[in-house]
Amino acid sequence: MTRLVKEDSEVGRLHINTPLMGESLVSKEFLRRTESKEYFRMQPEINILKIGGQSIIDRGAKAILPILDELIRLKEEYKILLMTGGGTRARHVYSIGVDLGMPTGVLSKLGDKVSWQNAEMISVLLAKHGGVKIGHGDNLEQLTMFCRLGYLPITYGIPPYGFFEHPAEIGSIPPHRTDCGAFLLAENIGARSVIFLKDEKGLFETDPKKVDAAKRGGLKFFDKISAGELLELDLDDLIIERPILTLLQRAKCIKQIQIIDALNNPGDIGKALAGEHVGTIITKD
Questions:
Q1: Of the four, 65, 170, 200, 237, which is 20 to 30 A from 130 by CA?
Q2: To which CATH superfamily is domain 42-283 assigned?
Q3: Would you say the C-alpha torsion 110, 83, 138, 253 has a positive or negative sign?
Q4: How many other C-beta atoms are found inside a 10 Å radius of the C-beta of residue 50?
């Protein structure tokens, strides 16, 4: 228990007597003692929906509008935070930055502008239906209030690492992009669910788009798999950003993520929000 201790001196200086006093904060044994039996969930009713930039937004009206119609309907029943990906334009700026030898932190700052632009476009499209664009500041603490007032909050998915982005394990592209941003936010607000809206049924052993149409039917599909199992498979390509698998294994609140084909089946959004097993579910254990 933390308590104030007053020293017997003329100054009467106060000290905080806490279990962390004198600890280096790097000892493994000490860190184990900081584990909580139950973690406080700030926004346990919020569902994080991350809409893909390249898979959906870049395809324009035919792809976006049916999904937005579904979200307008669903926001009356579920509390939703919509987060946007970057897509092709982010890849373009990454390409230029890589060609110029830009470090990972600079590439991270460059890429976040595109995700921000996509959030702006989606919020304009949803404005008359209660869509409101929010930033990464204090507004995130007010998500439940926004939803209870009938709004559909929208923010950009890129996490605000900027210059402080972790070095990439391979190459220089920022490892924590919009998928990771959606997961990290969901974990830290204790969200109800994390659902990724993509253009494929879910997770396959390889990207179906890179396989001849005649061979796609033979690809192995994972309807449910653990993060650990997926890491052991060490697939060359994934439908979500790879660091999420490690983050999920360490998560305190989020126990699973779900990947669905919202492009071809917008109705699956409602099914996923209702807890139905559509697409791919990746579990913590």
A1: 200
A2: Acetylglutamate kinase-like (3.40.1160.10)
A3: negative
A4: 27
**β-strands 3-6, 14-17 pairing:** antiparallel
Which run of H or E residues covers position 54? none
Q: Give the DSSP H/E element, type plus range, for residue 198.
A: strand 193-198
Residues 241-277, buried b or exposed e (16+ Cβ, 10 A)? Answer: bbbbbebbeebebbebbbbbbbbeebebbbebbeeee
Distance CA 49, CA 55 (A): 14
For every residue of 112-173, DSSP letters joined together read HHHHHHHHHHHHHHHGGGTEEE--SSGGGGGHHHHHHTT-EEEEE-S-TTGGGPPPPSSSSS
Question: Counting beta carbons within 10 angstroms of the beta carbon of residue 285, is it exposed (0 to 12), middle (13 to 18) or buried (19 or more)?
Answer: exposed
Cα-to-chain-centroid distance, residue 285: 19
Residue type, 237: D
Secondary structure letter of residue 281 according to DSSP: E
List the structure tokens of 164. 């402080």
Question: Which 3 state secondary structure label does DSSP give 195?
Answer: strand
**In the structure encoding, which two tokens stand for residue 79, read together?**
């509390």
125 burial (CB, 10 Å; 0-12 / 13-18 / 19+) is middle
pLDDT means per 10 residues, the chain with 285 residues, are 56 67 80 88 96 96 97 97 95 96 95 94 97 89 93 95 93 96 97 97 92 81 96 94 96 97 97 98 95
With vertex at residue 65, the alpha carbon angle to CA 62 and CA 69, rounded to the nearest 5 degrees, is: 145
Specify the amino acid at residue 195: I
Alpha carbons 284 and 225: distance in angstroms, whole number: 9
Q: Please state the pTM of the whole predicted model.
A: 0.92
